[in-house]
Amino acid sequence: MSQKEPKTEIAFDTRPVDAWIGVPLGGGQMKDPVGANDIRRWVQGMQNPNPLYYDEQYAEQSRFSRLVAPMSFAVCTDDSHGAGPAIQGHIEGTHMLFGGDEWWFFGPRIAPGDRIRRDRMLFDYKVADTRFAGPTMFSRGDTTYVNHEGMFVAKQRSTSIRYRADEARTRAQFDETEAPAWSLEQIEAVEKQKFEYIHSIRALGHDRRLFAKEGDRLPLRPIGPHTIMSFTTEWRAYLMTVWNAFADDGGPSSLHQAGWLPEMSRDLEGAKVDPTLGDGLYHGPSRGHVQKEYAQLIGLPRAYGYGATMGAWMIDYVANWAGEWGDILHANMTYRSPAFEGDLSLLNGEVLTVDESGPIPIVTLRIEMTNQKGEVMATGDAKVRLPTEDHPEP
């Protein structure tokens, strides 16, 4: 009887991570207050067509009487997609993907002129064996967003998937290295769906969404097909990609010493002379989003989108359905697969429950994002406070 080959153990020492759990972390803080065009650039990059966030004349007639940012904008005020606290401790030869985001929203909206600071901390982690890369760390870190008046805006608990890039390349779980082709007729059909979605936002307008019942379906929202251009536009919507927009607050962090591959590391010293060296997209951990050879270096087949953007799409989708008088209280989203170049992302939603036991109805929604093949990219639940006829002004 033949003996089985001994199983090769993959080195994945997580002890350096342990020292960072529960440590208040430093990082970048925005130098300047939020600008109106920061918000406009954000909704443009996220392809969110709600005029509340880019048309000041429309916004003046709203609940807020001024231009405000969508609830998804909080992550735009951070210097690492809110994932920095979940990428602490050195693990050699690793890369990371976004595994999900849990959000708590506390009421205040971000508007032009606001200054937002962040408090950060690594929450916890676990290691599991995955088909994608063998031993894989799922670490969670918290970022709390506080405005200049000391009011808590939101808390984000981001999940980072840290894995050995060489093992992911060997396993090659993703195929289809070439982006799918779309016919003119198919593109026209997608554009029609997009206009139907925009119409659903415009139809509600400044009105209150007063009614929802279990089983109600949210309107379909298509995004894509994704291209290198759309990925780049997304990236440039994040304020952290603007050269010298953030200043390090001096607190401890090992984000830039997390064990990135040399090809995916920033040259922070060189960036003092040539800022592209610390840009992240030209050089650094995000170059795989727009360059196939670097995507394949970390085990992915071709250019791909951003986990934080997937989270923004889902938050925006819920908020646009709820309308300007609705408030997202909590959302917990899990990301299963990136949005790859050439793919179409399709957002669907359903009302799971309506709780009318309190003074204001609380609706729980189930949100799912799939690609054009029906493969699930992301899923999650969100709790939304719907308005009443006498809902107070903010």
Low-confidence stretches: 1-8
Give the oligomeric state: single chain
| CATH architecture assignment of the domain at 15-181 and 227-325 | Roll
Strand order of the largest sheet: 1-4-5-6-3-9-12-11-10-7
Main pleated sheet: 10 strands, antiparallel
| Mean pLDDT across every amino acid position | 93
Terminal Cα span: 76 Å
Shape: globular
- Indicate the CATH topology of the domain at 15-181 and 227-325: Thiol Ester Dehydrase, Chain A
How many distinct helices? Answer: 8
Total strands:
12
Order of helices and strands: HEEHHEEEEHHEHEHHEEEE
Superfamily (CATH H level) name of the domain at 15-181 and 227-325: Hotdog Thioesterase
Overall radius of gyration: 21 Å
Name of the top-level CATH class of the domain at 15-181 and 227-325: Alpha Beta
Strand content: 25-35%
Provide the fold topology.
Layout: H1 15-18, E1 24-25, E2 28-30, H2 36-45, H3 56-60, E3 94-105, E4 116-130, E5 134-147, E6 152-164, H4 165-171, H5 184-204, E7 221-223, H6 228-237, E8 246-248, H7 292-297, H8 307-322, E9 327-335, E10 345-355, E11 362-370, E12 376-385
Antiparallel strand pairs: 1-4, 2-8, 3-6, 3-9, 4-5, 5-6, 7-10, 9-12, 10-11, 11-12
Helix pairs in contact: 2-6
Structure description:
The chain has 394 residues and is of the alpha+beta class. It has a domain at 15-181 and 227-325: Hotdog Thioesterase (Thiol Ester Dehydrase, Chain A), CATH 3.10.129. It contains eight helices and twelve strands. The strands form two sheets. Strands 1-4-5-6-3-9-12-11-10-7 form a ten-stranded antiparallel beta sheet. Strand 4 (116-130) and strand 5 (134-147) form a beta hairpin. The radius of gyration is 21 Å and the shape is globular. The N and C termini lie far apart (76 Å).
